[in-house]
Design goal:
The protein has 322 residues and is α+β, with helices and mostly antiparallel strands. The chain is built from 9 helices and 14 strands. It is 37% helix and 20% strand. The strands form 3 sheets. A 5-stranded antiparallel sheet has the order 5-6-7-8-9, covered by helices on one side. Strands 10-12-11-13-14 form a 5-stranded mixed sheet, with helices on both faces. The N terminus is likely disordered.
């Protein structure tokens, strides 16, 4: 939910570093990347590697251990005039056109457009191959996984049942699927609650089915799996889908509405009361608008601590565990 402090710290530092640079050229490009929340771990290194039409992967400040960042530059007279970039980890992307691009002729612009389209197709093909490879890996891991232990430390701490979760070594394993049932990725949760998504796995629009329900009364869509387990326990007649995080809520909700056009859908959001702008509630509301459905937030009893934010937090506090 909250942006990683590392990302924000690097972004602020880099913005300060280039805020007084003259307009145009590479300084303009660096500023555009930061404004779009595409934040390389080493922005100078990334910009220095740019080659006309070549896709470059790079480590990001949000997840320094993975090369989730990508960038493609198109040059004119030795300098980049159009740059497309993004962060697969956060879903951020951008397109930058240098002010020098205004001097190009019509023929040069047509050629540049062709090169951009070709680079886009190559990038999409590469991303698709990456996702398909991850899906095969996820399937193999899922079949090797054993049923989750009922006394797993994370389950006990959250007061939830394993439901459809499996286990590999000491980590819970959760399947991310689409509405056809295809397995695309996995989320693992260790005993201390650290969550990881499978490298290269596709998250956007995919979700965890908390427990199967043949004829659900309604569909509930939430962020985290533990929250989904709490909702499924409290409302067993409902089918609960966990979208992993706030950024994926709207994508899953719109796909759910397309899949179930007449179903009662409810977005069950996190109430991030202590975070500026309340990103959980904002994302839930926006997802509900996008999918033409309702949304709900936890109803806090008098005396509920301010640090509680989701339905699982509320249930745990009511049991005296928080």
């Amino acid at each position: 939910m909250k942006k990683a402090p590392t990302t924000e710290a690097v972004k602020r530092h880099t913005q300060d570093q280039y805020s007084t640079a003259p307009a145009g050229g590479y300084s303009e490009l660096k500023s555009a990347l930061l404004d779009a929340d595409v934040v390389p771990l080493n922005i100078d290194q990334v910009v220095g590697q740019l080659v006309d039409g070549r896709l470059i992967r790079f480590k990001t400040a949000s997840k320094p251990g993975k090369r989730n960042g990508w960038i493609v530059a198109h040059f004119d007279q030795g300098v980049p005039v159009v740059v497309i970039a993004g962060d697969w980890g956060t879903g951020s992307d951008m397109k930058w056109v240098a002010s020098t691009g205004d001097t190009m002729t019509a023929a040069e612009r047509r050629q540049l457009k062709i090169r951009i389209q070709k680079a886009r197709r190559e990038r999409e093909e590469q991303e698709h191959r990456k996702h398909e490879d991850a899906a095969l890996h996820a399937k193999a891991m899922w079949h090797k996984a054993a049923p989750a232990s009922a006394d797993h430390e994370y389950l006990v701490s959250k007061g939830i049942s394993a439901n459809t979760a499996r286990q590999i070594n000491d980590c819970l394993v959760l399947p991310l699927i689409d509405f056809t049932g295809k397995l695309w990725s996995l989320q693992t949760i260790n005993p201390q609650g650290k969550k990881l998504l499978l490298a290269g796995g596709k998250k956007a629009g995919h979700f965890i089915v908390v427990r199967p329900v043949d004829y659900p009364k309604r569909i509930l869509i939430c962020e985290g799996w533990a929250t989904g387990c709490t909702l499924a326990e409290q409302m067993p007649e409902c089918l609960v889908l966990a979208a992993i995080d706030a950024g994926n809520l709207a994508t899953v909700a719109k796909a759910a509405r397309k899949n179930w056009p007449e179903m009662d859908l409810v977005i069950c959001g996190d109430d991030d009361r202590q975070t500026e702008g309340n990103p959980g509630a904002t994302a839930a509301r926006n997802a509900a608008i996008a999918a033409h459905c309702r949304f709900a937030l936890p109803e806090w009893p008098e005396g509920a601590p301010e640090h509680l934010s989701d339905f699982n937090d509320l249930a745990s506090w009511q049991r005296g565990k928080l």
